[in-house]
């Protein structure tokens, strides 16, 4: 049992094992963005109950309950701000809000962030923490994967801009199968659970137990699916170093004014 | 002629005959297997197939032909006699190659492409599967058969009763299939005899050539790719292939592709763009494969790469959901200019069973989940996710696969004609716009500040920064 105060001081990292526990989006943005430079985007964009979905509780009520409990309107915060003097466009997902599930609002906010970054030629940083697509929105939430990938195509392939994705605990399902794994550089936090199909689904399919440590960041690193594993305390510095490296290319001069 | 094992017949619905006449099958004695191949007129009628269906152990999914010439009728009669003489053996052996060891001279006439296809008709007629909601129909059919047998045995005339029952059967069938509930449509979409991707292909193409491999160590059987012609125009075909029986399903991994399948699909799509083939994709999968090997080799990454790249392909793409559309596994080949769905197919973000287990905490709530998630074709057209619903014949596609394929062909060609008028840049813009508009958000309503207390508020100086301006 970690004492919360010490844990927060340590940026929610266990001292003994280096396990990175999950973190609020606010706690991520706060230290990474230079003071007095943050401009949030689409603060009031929230999901609509497009299917009139009702399981044990109606989707609308679930949304309102999550909003009250977490103090967030949706599972992602997007905006622009300076980080070590470089203007970047970060989007930070939050697992607390309905398990970080990706619905229409998350899809729309991230797409708009990418479109804004394309327009202003900013580097994009998306911090992923999600349980997958939001089932209460059905196939509409599935199409958000395609929508975000389409915006990323224009951003990365046509405009040749830099996109860094940071995979945190946990990143699963639709997010892994869309923008999570499309970063020009994919950074993961230590011991983050990164998967497409969850452990339980695999065990049911195969009828056997999944080995320990199977879908953790270290295992994916060994299999060549990630670029870097970076401890939380170094993320800010690493991001600005990467931005510098990419902006100092001699061959293609980009028209970016940082 | 001494054939010792079951002759396997491959017929293409609309293969052009080189001589212009339906030529009789050639028989070549090749030791253990005898081969016959028909090349038929594109417009020939059902004569050949229906007559062959009379002989046991041949099952064709209605590869039909129009009018037959007298010569071909004579050929069929000769063939039938020969078939009745042959010794039948259950089709269990897997030949190494799909062509005979020894070719006869007639084999070399016409197109060689059918010899390269390993997809042959099933030798044994599959057992009829009745869905739960079809049980009343089964009862009436049993009664009809009983009366017919009695009539045969006693010689009395029961035609009135039979006609009456037949009329009742037709009415009930029309009523049942006219108003299927989502749960019933899901069961039709998962029907074991629903036509698979290759069956549709062989019904709609004139020529078909399957291409294999991801050039990186694997040829995933769950995704089938190839090139073919429809009405003389060449297309690239990519689709999930389910098995027609248990053995095939195991080989095809139940149409659940691994990352290699998606990489194979991507290679084919790039190849198609390079050479100018429009792409037709067919979705029929319960989902991407969830296994250790798949995860280790980057299942998520393969799908993500496909999603991104498909938005940059400068050729028209039409996706049709012919069975189940399982979440990311379906979307991996489903980013398109036009999305079509067969009437009884479904497209879901999570299978109803999984959704029920998570949200209702019991797998028994799967019917409720099916209704709530709005996964059927008509519901998705209303949500503006799908562009058109392709009608299936009465009784579902499994009842009359050929008609279902023809409906599909007509819809695809109609949409393709419109898409071929666009230049590549407009095509890409149109594809992007199609997906950009999907999503239901609420904005402009000032939220309660309590709901935003954990959001980082704006703290940039008002005069220093440019405010975000979305054009």
Automatic annotation (TrEMBL), chain A:
GO terms for cellular component: acetyl-CoA carboxylase complex. It comes from the Eukaryota. This is CoA carboxyltransferase N-terminal domain-containing protein. One of its GO terms (molecular function) is transferase activity. One of its GO terms (biological process) is malonyl-CoA biosynthetic process. The keyword Transferase applies. PANTHER family: ACETYL-COENZYME A CARBOXYLASE CARBOXYL TRANSFERASE SUBUNIT BETA, CHLOROPLASTIC. InterPro entries: AcCoA_carboxyl_beta, Acetyl_CoA_COase_Trfase_b_su, ClpP/crotonase-like_dom_sf, COA_CT_N. Keywords: ATP-binding, Metal-binding, Nucleotide-binding, Transferase, Zinc, Zinc-finger. Residues 1-258 form the CoA carboxyltransferase N-terminal domain. The keyword Transcription regulation does not apply. It comes from Ceratopteris richardii (Triangle waterfern). Acetyl-CoA carboxylase is a heterohexamer composed of biotin carboxyl carrier protein, biotin carboxylase and 2 subunits each of ACCase subunit alpha and ACCase plastid-coded subunit beta (accD).
TrEMBL record, chain B:
Its EC number is 2.1.3.15. Gene3D superfamilies: 2-enoyl-CoA Hydratase, Chain A, domain 1. Pfam families: ACCA. It catalyses: N(6)-carboxybiotinyl-L-lysyl-[protein] + acetyl-CoA = N(6)-biotinyl-L-lysyl-[protein] + malonyl-CoA. Residues 164-418 form the CoA carboxyltransferase C-terminal domain. Pathway: Lipid metabolism; malonyl-CoA biosynthesis; malonyl-CoA from acetyl-CoA: step 1/1. Coiled coil: none annotated. The keyword Iron does not apply. Keywords: ATP-binding, Fatty acid biosynthesis, Fatty acid metabolism, Lipid biosynthesis, Lipid metabolism, Nucleotide-binding, Transferase. Residues 451-471 are annotated as: Disordered. GO terms for cellular component: acetyl-CoA carboxylase complex. It comes from the Eukaryota. It is an enzyme of class 2 (transferase). PROSITE patterns: COA_CT_CTER. GO terms for molecular function: acetyl-CoA carboxylase activity; ATP binding; carboxyl- or carbamoyltransferase activity. One of its GO terms (biological process) is fatty acid biosynthetic process. InterPro entries: Acetyl_CoA_COase_a_su (IPR001095), ClpP/crotonase-like_dom_sf (IPR029045), COA_CT_C (IPR011763). This is acetyl-CoA carboxytransferase. It comes from Ceratopteris richardii (Triangle waterfern). The lineage of its organism: Eukaryota, Viridiplantae, Streptophyta, Embryophyta, Tracheophyta.
């Amino acid at each position: 049992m970690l004492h919360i105060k010490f844990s927060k001081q340590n940026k929610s990292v266990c001292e003994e094992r280096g396990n990175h526990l999950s973190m609020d989006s606010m706690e991520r943005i706060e230290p990474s963005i230079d003071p007095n430079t943050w401009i949030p985007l689409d603060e009031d964009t929230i999901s609509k109950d497009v299917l009139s979905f009702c399981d044990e509780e109606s989707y609308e009520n679930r949304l309102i309950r999550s909003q009250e409990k977490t103090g967030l309107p949706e599972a992602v915060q997007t905006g622009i701000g300076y980080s070590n003097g470089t203007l970047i466009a970060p989007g930070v997902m939050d697992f607390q809000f309905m398990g970080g599930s990706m619905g229409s609002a998350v899809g729309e906010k991230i797409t708009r962030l990418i479109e804004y970054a394309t327009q202003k030629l900013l580097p994009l940083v998306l911090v992923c923490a999600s349980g997958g697509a939001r089932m209460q929105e059905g196939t509409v939430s599935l199409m958000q994967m395609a929508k975000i990938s389409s915006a990323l195509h224009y951003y990365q392939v046509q405009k040749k801009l830099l996109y860094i994705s940071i995979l945190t605990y946990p990143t699963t399902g639709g997010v892994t199968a869309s923008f999570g794994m499309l970063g020009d550089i994919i950074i993961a936090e230590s011991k983050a659970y990164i998967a497409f199909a969850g452990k339980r689904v695999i065990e049911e399919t195969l009828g056997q137990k999944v080995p320990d440590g199977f879908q953790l960041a270290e295992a994916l690193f060994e299999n060549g699916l990630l670029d870097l594993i970076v401890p939380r305390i170094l993320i800010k510095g690493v991001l600005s170093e990467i931005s510098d490296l990419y902006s100092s290319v001699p061959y293609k001069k980009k028209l970016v004014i940082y | 002629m001494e054939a010792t094992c079951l002759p396997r017949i491959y017929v293409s619905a609309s293969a052009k005959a080189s001589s212009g006449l339906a030529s009789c099958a050639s028989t070549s004695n090749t030791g253990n297997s005898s081969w016959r191949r028909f090349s038929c007129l594109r417009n020939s009628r059902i004569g050949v197939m229906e007559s062959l269906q009379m002989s046991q152990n041949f099952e064709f999914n209605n590869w039909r032909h129009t009018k037959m010439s007298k010569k071909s009728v004579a050929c069929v009669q000769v063939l039938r006699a020969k078939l009745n003489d042959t010794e039948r053996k259950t089709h269990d052996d897997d030949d190494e190659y799909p062509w005979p060891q020894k070719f006869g001279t007639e084999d070399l006439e016409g197109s060689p492409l059918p010899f390269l296809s390993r997809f042959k008709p099933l030798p044994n007629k599959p057992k009829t599967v009745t869905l739960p909601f079809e049980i009343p129909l089964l009862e009436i059919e049993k009664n009809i058969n009983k009366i017919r047998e009695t009539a045969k045995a006693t010689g009395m005339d029961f035609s009135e009763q039979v006609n009456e029952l037949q009329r009742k059967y037709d009415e009930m069938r029309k009523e049942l299939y006219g108003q299927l509930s989502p749960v019933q449509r899901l069961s039709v979409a998962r029907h074991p005899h629903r036509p698979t991707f290759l069956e549709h292909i062989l019904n709609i193409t004139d020529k078909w050539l399957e291409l294999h491999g991801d050039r990186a160590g694997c040829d995933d059987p769950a995704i089938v790719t190839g090139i073919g012609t429809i009405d003389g125009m060449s297309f690239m075909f990519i689709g999930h292939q389910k098995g027609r029986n248990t053995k095939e399903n195991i080989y095809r991994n139940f149409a659940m592709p691994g990352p290699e399948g998606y990489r194979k699909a991507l290679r084919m799509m790039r190849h198609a763009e390079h050479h100018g083939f429009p792409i037709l994709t067919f979705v029929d999968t319960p989902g991407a494969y969830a296994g250790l090997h798949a995860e280790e080799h980057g299942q998520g990454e393969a799908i993500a790469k496909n999603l991104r790249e498909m938005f940059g392909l400068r050729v028209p793409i039409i996706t049709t959901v012919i069975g189940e559309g399982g979440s990311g596994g379906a979307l991996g080949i489903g980013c398109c200019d036009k999305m079509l769905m067969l009437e009884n197919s479904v497209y879901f973000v999570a299978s109803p069973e999984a959704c029920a287990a998570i949200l209702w905490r019991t797998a028994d709530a799967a019917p409720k989940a099916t209704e709530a998630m709005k996964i059927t074709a008509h519901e998705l057209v209303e949500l503006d996710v799908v562009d058109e619903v392709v009608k299936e014949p009465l009784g579902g596609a499994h009842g009359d696969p050929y008609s279902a394929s023809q409906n599909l062909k007509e819809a695809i060609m109609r949409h393709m004609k419109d898409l071929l008028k666009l230049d590549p840049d407009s095509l890409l813009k149109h594809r992007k716009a199609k997906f950009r508009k999907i999503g239901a958000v609420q904005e402009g309503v000032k939220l309660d500040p309590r709901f935003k207390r954990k959001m980082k508020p704006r703290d940039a100086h008002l005069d220093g920064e440019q405010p975000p301006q979305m054009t």
